[in-house]
Specification:
This protein is of the alpha/beta class and about 600 residues long. The protein is built from 25 helices and nine strands. The protein has helices at about 1-20, 35-40, 85-95, 110-120, 135-140, 145-155, 170-180, 195-210, 220-225, 235-275, 280-300, 305-320, 320-335, 340-350, 355-360, 365-375, 380-395, 400-425, 445-480, 495-505, 515-525, 530-540, 550-565, 570-580, 580-610; strands at about 20-30, 45-50, 55-60, 70-75, 100-105, 130-135, 145, 155-160, 210. A seven-stranded mixed beta sheet has the order 2-3-4-1-5-6-8, with helices on both faces. It has a two-stranded antiparallel sheet with strand order 7-9.
């Protein structure tokens, strides 16, 4: 009997291993909580790639409670009659990808809008489960949804869940497993016309939804009357971003940066020096302490500021304000021949220019796509934020207003650049952009912390790879001459290169206190990765940046590095996405020209009114 049980257990394991995974396609309207549900179902067991043929993010993950379920997150869509590139991807996958189950996520507080997609999904005759999401918000608003009544009308499972609070995940998983083994009836043929679908949805909402009579002016409406007011919208936006930079760069973040720079870094260098003292090799000690530790920690010290900054951005996204920013900037972008979709790409550029450039494939209009690719690198990415934070801390006495000014300078550069490109490219742009403004809600701590950790992790990985390698190279070029003989800084290979190119930047004020070649070399090193600008300056200017260049020259330096051609990775993405070497070269030349012209203008105007 015992042997028989062992045999049965072995066969069960073999069957489980051999069985192919059940593919569950997650589908739903934008702002229905689809991403939150995906995270709740899969946890950290996720893979991020691109949909075949298009550079739009594709997430897949394994369900934590049922590993045989593989979840595929499709882009948000309102209908299977696609209007936007994202909707086209979703519709094509749901129709042709042949998932085993479709998990339709709907917003319980706005069923009438969400159920149109449900009715269309039912007609695909693929086992369907509907997640009645945001039950917590529905209850808070006094809305009750009768899932049983909806099941009778649509003839599929409706499961109440609250993804944000991880409620209902067990029932939802069991429902997916159950319907995966069964066939379901297609929706009645009379629902084929749009009119019939809307009639069905109206009937379903009347039967299944009970909501209290409320004042038409909800809390969201009241807030939007202020933050979207044509006179107040941009001043409020400016105040919000100022507060964000004061907290991250000048407040808590600045204090933590000082702690790392002035306490932790010297301790690490002292420990390394002590450990290497027995080697009696001065150059090795210098390489490790000054080159590797000094170079890497010069960037790592700004991790707190960058992490807090992206935490603030995650809060703005989570509460719904970031969508309002896209809304208020859409009209301005249309005057440049762009649209709201371009703004979404630029927002991604706050993290990194590479995915921001890749995301422009969602823009159908070729002219708008090329202009967006050219202008997106003007947005301060996390690498450029390290440069901004470094100069704000050590050249501008920690005054966060300077950091804020660089943020708005990038917006000005986008406007100026867009107007200039509009003169040269006459083709009409402005892809149609549909965006729903979600209700204001409390951001979820888990989501905010996850985004902060992802940004911090990405930054540290770069510091441990690219920045470390760059630090070793810079130390070598700084300590040896062209014959690879030991040399002081002034006679090093790096000094010779810097003195060769420094006259190009002299009109911008880089040399107004005699350290022009060091700043010129730092600018050149930023082509590898913008963080290396900080690393280079820390190695070449051990006494600090404050006495190396005037505040006006420092401002011009940061402005140029903020707007000039981005890192090699972003340039490669730009060349690839524009599909033409000529377009890529013209984009890079345009970025250099705009950066040089604006920096020159700022320095020359500033010289008329400010002492150097």
């Amino acid at each position: 009997m015992k042997k028989l049980n062992i045999y049965n257990n072995i066969k069960t394991v073999e069957n489980n291993v051999a069985a192919p995974p059940t593919v569950v396609a997650l589908a739903g309207n934008p702002n229905s909580g689809k991403t939150t549900l995906f995270n709740a179902l899969t946890g950290s067991d996720q893979q991020v790639g691109n949909w075949p043929g298009v550079t739009v993010e594709r997430k897949t993950g394994i369900c934590r409670k049922a590993p045989q379920l593989h979840i595929v997150d499709t882009p948000g869509c309102y209908s299977l009659q696609p209007f936007t590139p994202e909707e086209k991807i979703s519709a094509q996958y749901l129709r042709e990808g042949k998932p085993d189950v479709i998990l339709n996520v709907v917003d319980s507080t706005n069923l009438e809008r969400n159920l149109l997609l449900t009715a269309q999904l039912k007609e695909l005759n693929i086992p369907l489960v509907v997640a009645l999401n945001m039950q917590d918000e529905a209850k808070a608003k006094g809305i009750a949804v009768d899932g049983a009544a909806l099941e009778k009308i649509f003839r599929c499972a409706f499961v109440p869940v609250s993804a944000a609070k991880n409620d209902g995940m067990d029932k939802l998983t069991k429902a997916c497993l159950k319907v995966a083994k069964s066939k379901q009836e297609p929706l009645a043929a009379q629902s084929e016309s749009a009119a019939d679908k809307y009639a069905l949805i109206e009937k379903a909402v009347k039967l299944a939804v009970r909501s209290p009579k409320t004042d038409a002016s909800t809390l969201t409406d009241k807030i939007d009357k202020i933050v979207l007011n044509k006179w107040l919208a941009f001043p409020i936006f400016a105040l919000v971003m100022t507060a964000v930079f004061f907290l991250s760069v000048g407040g808590v973040g600045g204090g933590l940066t000082d702690l790392i720079e002035n306490k932790l870094t010297p301790l690490l260098q002292l420990a390394a020096e002590s450990a290497l003292s027995h080697t009696k090799i001065p150059w090795l000690t210098s390489l490790v302490c000054d080159g590797m530790i000094g170079g890497v920690m010069s960037v790592v010290s700004f991790v707190p500021q960058i992490t807090i900054l992206f935490g603030c951005i995650a809060l703005l996204e989570g509460c719904g304000y970031m969508s309002r920013i896209a809304f208020i900037t859409d009209k301005m972008l249309h005057s440049l021949g762009l649209g709201g979709r371009s703004f979404v790409c630029m927002i991604l550029g706050c993290g990194c220019s590479v995915p921001a450039i890749l995301s422009t494939r969602t823009i159908k209009n070729a002219r708008e796509r090329d202009v967006t690719i050219t202008l997106t690198p003007f947005v301060p990415c996390s690498a450029k934020l390290a440069v901004i934070a470094f100069f704000t801390t050590y050249a501008f006495d920690g005054n966060a207003l300077f950091a804020v000014s660089f943020y708005f300078a990038s917006i000005a550069a986008i406007i100026v650049g867009g107007l200039l490109l509009k003169l040269f490219v006459r083709e009409k742009g402005g892809d149609v952009f549909l965006m729903e403004l979600p209700p204001y809600r409390m951001p979820r701590a888990r989501n905010v912390l996850r985004q902060m950790w992802q940004r911090c992790k990405a930054f540290l990985v770069k510091a441990g790879t690219i920045i470390l390698a760059a630090s070793v190279v810079l130390w070598t070029l700084t300590n040896f001459d062209v014959r690879f003989a030991p040399a002081n800084v002034e006679n090093s290979m790096l000094a010779r290169l810097g003195k060769l190119i420094s006259p190009l930047f002299a009109p911008l004020g880089f040399n107004d206190r005699g350290c022009g070649w060091q700043l010129a070399v730092a600018t050149l090193s930023g082509i590898a990765a913008k963080e290396t600008v900080v690393t280079t300056l820390q190695i070449l200017l051990p006494s600090g940046i404050a006495d190396a260049v005037s505040p006006l020259g420092a401002y011009s330096f940061v402005l140029y590095n903020l707007l000039t051609v981005p890192c090699v990775a972003a340039c490669s993405a730009s060349f690839a996405e524009q599909g033409s070497r000529k377009k890529g070269v013209l984009s890079a030349a345009f970025q250099i020209a705009v950066a040089y012209a604006l920096s020159l203008l700022v320095y020359r105007l500033g010289s008329l009114f400010l002492p150097r």
